[in-house]
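Title: Comparing notes on inverse folding

I've been comparing how different people in this forum approach sequence design from structure. To keep things fair, I'm posting one structure and asking everyone to reply with a full sequence. Here's the target:
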């Protein structure tokens, strides 16, 4: 069991990156605030955490990213205007952002790797287990992932990862796991190793690491002792591998729901289209227009 014997209630979202793939849009606007229809990417992620029972969210930010915290503040002026207009739907949507969770922030002075970003959360998180949610992907709210991960971590007290199944030809784009069966439940495996971006011939499986982790508080001591690895950065994977070698149990939930990956321009555009098409207020007209547009492009 972890230090408290309870499910984690805190989450860390590393969000200090420069997002060079989205320049010049991200020169002044954090990538995490790019809108997917009418909600920024970061809000989808905080909503995912809140729906799983997370009540405390720490944003690890960098220079020029204070607007991410502002997004979750109250806006009495906007709320008053919407109230005057009688726009109850938008008023509820604006208020909801400040009611999702308690939002905190700390700064990562330099972008020294994911492990380093997680490490700066040590004083906020303390000794308890916590979730890490990367800031450029989220899952379908109708197919949640995090509750199963939190439950599993509370049972094992170790590290819990999330995997998706990828085509063998795509393994060189991901961290890939070697695993063995687990008796802990359906879609749960025991992790025996992680390989970063192996070729299809060298990949131990087709299970790729998703940007969701539930970690014991002991990870902070290991991160502090982890030397820079790939790219000269302090890698979270290296710290987890060390804990695995030291006997910490590592399990994973294999996720078979839909994942939205907004970390690259193509994935971001796909997420916008997919979520717009699912909206009851926008979907029918948008899908109709999209079908006509695609047809015109093919012609």
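Reply #1:
Here's my take.
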């Amino acid at each position: 069991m972890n230090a408290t014997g309870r499910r984690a209630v805190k989450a860390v979202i590393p969000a200090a990156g420069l997002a060079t793939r989205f320049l010049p849009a991200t020169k002044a606007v954090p990538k995490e605030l790019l809108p997917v229809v009418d909600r920024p990417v970061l809000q989808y992620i905080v909503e995912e955490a809140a729906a799983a029972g997370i009540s405390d969210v720490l944003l690890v930010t960098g220079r020029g990213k204070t607007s991410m915290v502002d997004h979750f503040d109250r806006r009495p002026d906007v709320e008053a205007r919407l109230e005057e207009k009688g726009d109850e739907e938008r008023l509820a949507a604006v208020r909801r952002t400040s009611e999702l969770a308690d939002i905190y922030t700390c700064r990562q002075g330099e972008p020294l790797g994911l492990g380093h970003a997680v490490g700066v959360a040590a004083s906020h998180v303390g000794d308890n287990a916590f979730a890490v949610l990367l800031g450029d992907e989220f899952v379908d709210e109708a197919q949640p992932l995090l509750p199963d991960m939190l439950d599993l971590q509370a049972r094992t007290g170790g590290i819990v990862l999330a995997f998706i199944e990828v085509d063998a030809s795509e393994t060189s784009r991901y961290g890939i796991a070697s695993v063995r069966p687990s008796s802990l439940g359906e879609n749960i495996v025991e992790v025996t190793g992680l390989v970063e971006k192996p070729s299809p011939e060298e990949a131990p499986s087709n299970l790729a690491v998703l940007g969701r982790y539930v970690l014991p508080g002991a990870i902070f001591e290991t991160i502090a002792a982890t030397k820079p690895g790939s790219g000269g950065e302090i890698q979270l994977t290296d710290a987890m591998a060390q804990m695995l070698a030291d006997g910490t149990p590592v399990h994973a939930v294999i996720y078979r729901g839909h994942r939205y990956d907004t970390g690259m321009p193509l994935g971001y555009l796909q997420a916008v289209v997919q979520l717009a098409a699912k909206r009851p207020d926008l979907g029918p007209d948008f899908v109709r227009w999209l079908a006509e547009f695609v047809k015109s492009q093919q012609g």
